[in-house]
Amino acid sequence: MHKTCFITRRRALWLGLGALVTAGDLTRDMAKCLSQKIQDMDGQERDFKVARGASLKERAAAKGLIYGAASRYDDLSSNAEFADRFVEECGLLVPEWEFKWSAGNKLLRPTPDSFNFTAADWMAKFARNHNLLLQGQTLVWHESLPPWFEDTVNRKNAEQLLVKHIETVAGSYTGQMHSWAVVNEAIKLSDRRSDGLRKTPWLEFLGPDYIELAFRVAASADPQALLFYNDFGLDYDTPADEAKRTAVLRLLERLKSRGTPVHALGLQAHLSGDESRFNARKLRNFLHDVASLGLKILVTELDVTDKNLPENTGVRDRIVAAAYEDYLSAVLDEPAAIGVLTWGLSDRYTWLSEFAPRADGAPVRSLPLDAELKRKLAWNALARAFDRAPVRDAHLKVKEHKSDNKSDFFV
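Structure (tokenized):
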């Protein structure tokens, strides 16, 4: 149970708010957030100090974990300094858009009968040339569908189109992928179905079994890859997140009971810097329940929005870092957790600049590296979480894998 959150002027001064703390400057919710995130209790300060030297991927690998990040073709191909920093820090690349059906005017599948792998091939080659693992997101999603989808797909052809898509996309990279997000965001409780499923075109045309179908086709197309279900809204101690955790667990139980080749759960973990309702015990219990199904756990899209935090960068950076460290400390306690992927590496390239901009116009500071590609406190928080994580029983042996046992492949 959370203690009541409050902030004193002494704490505010310690945070560097100084003269900003006057009547009305901090809302009640902000005060709760600052008190909760910084945890300046009984004079104990969190300094976020880490030993110098090792990169995030090296610190993660030392514990048998993966660290990686999402990026786009446009960013990696146009900025050599950023590409160098990406290779330095990351052990896995997630192409942010290049494996989705469409992204704006960039179409992986321009027509029902054609595919354009130009950008995806470049990303796969970049990963291969720099000895990075590669993850594909996402094979089945109700968003990022191409313009032709609505007028073309119906109950008669939906299964054929879906199967062709998965067979072609996953099959084109057989043996090259560490993992695939096979189905993304299939749960939406406000749609009020008894099974908790989101009302999507795939559900409308194919029924609930479209999820199992997608996993079976993906497993046939790329039998060595780890296949995971991916979703958001599983992180906080709120009624909505608790209900969604229950619904996701039930979905995974149903899939496993039918022998569906699902190997892991992906936690998107788009966190909020001003959210104080985090309960490590409840999250650990949920992850333990997931692991008890024989599933691995990946943090797949981690970032921390600073939209509602003070403009002062020192304050913002501390709150964002605390959110990272608190969350990862809980997740990495679970032995089934095998990796942490941030949704971006540098503040220069983050979706949050567009989708969660600050009202004051200040640049967002949500990722491990700042806009100048320098490490900041968020980087320290990830480094500390990896340094303090328990060592896994076995280290990653992806390159040497010979077995069909996915649990051996991806621990």
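The two ends are 33 Å apart (CA to CA). Residues 55 and 88 are 7 Å apart (CA to CA).
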